[in-house]
Each structure stands twice: as structure tokens, then as C-alpha cells.
Amino acid sequence: MANDGPVEHGYPHLETVRAAITALYKRLSCDTIQTFATSVLPADVAFCDTDDLYLGAQRVAHELVRHYRLPDARLVVSFREMRHAANVELAAGPEYFVELNDRFRRHRRDIGAALAHEVMHVYLHRLDLSFPGVRDNEILTDTATTYLGAGWLLLDAYREDGASSQKLGYLTPEEFGYVLAKRALLFGEDPSVWFTSPQAYTAYGKGMTLARRDEQEPPLTAAGWAGR
What we know:
This protein is mainly alpha-helical. 45% of the residues lie in helices and 11% in strands.
């Protein structure tokens, strides 16, 4: 989590991101990925300042469990001071303990973004899908979260101005935009209508440019639809 510090930009993890999308298709199949055609909607994870902190966090966690189709998983959410945005204890289940950074007590609208990443850890754990090394595995988690319909929350949590900055996840804003664009092109979806962060629009636009460029690269340019 970048908090009032420099935010990395560009595409330094692009090779791993593309490998993560490929790994999802190999592990889940095209048919299963098609079942995630509907993204998490803002109303599903809305969090007002007047909501009870713990009951609200549990409600949002439940919605994400439902989205990822983990009906027998139960998440217990708590808050504490920590360096990272969140942490989940990956045990045998069905109960999983998630800790969120204390800053989310004050920034409640981003709780859904933090939980989207942590619940995806549970999903991938159950799939027995992982990449070697912490960095690559976290990139896999961010990519899967985004490609399967909840990662727009992570990009929307990115905010940056002259005085402060915030970014959740391991991908850069442009990489989140790229994966979102790949998903949007697949499902005919426009996630930008849900953004509240001006910077998210910019990052998504840059990611879309790169995603469209993919379609013009060999071997796709010389292949028919079946070949693609």
C-alpha cells in the first residue's frame, strides 16, 4: 500500500500480468471465466460513515465471498495497525481471519477494495493456484481480482495529488487499467462508469490503449477468429 508516498507507474510487471491471465484460463477454463461476466457493483460494497464498522466490513466481505462463489467460506474481519493494507490467514477453512489496516477505520469506502484482494487470496488458495515468490504471487492475486470482476475497486482506490497519494495492490495504476481493459473487451463492459477517482479514468484509458494494441500484434494480426 502506497500511502502519501511515491506511486510507481508504467508496466514493470506486464510479463507477469500476462502470465497470470494465461494461468487463470488454464486453471479455470473459458466457460468458468464466462460465469464472472458481471462485476461487483458499487451498491454491493457501499460503505457509509454511519454504518457500523465491523458489521459493515462483514457485510462487504460476504458480498465478495458470494461474488467469487465461495459459499462455505466465512471471513472474520478485524482492524489493527500494520504496514500493509490487509492480511489474510490462509488455513484449511471454512473460517478465514482477515486483518485490515487501521487507516480503513477512517477510509471506509476503500474497505471493499482491500477485501477484494484478500478474498481472492482465499479463492486462489482453494484452487491451489499460485506463482513462486511473494511478489509474483501478489501480482497474480491482483490480476485475478481484476479479471474476475472486483479489481475495479482497487484501481478506484488510487488517488494522487500534490499533497498526498494512495494506492492499493501491487500492480501499477496503468497495469490495473490494462487488466480491466482486457476484461472490458471480453465482456463488453465499461467499468469507468463506477470510478470516483479522477486518476482511475486516466490509468484505465492508458491500459485500454495497450490492451487494444495487443490485438494488433503478431500472431493475432495474421490469424482468423478461430486462431485467436
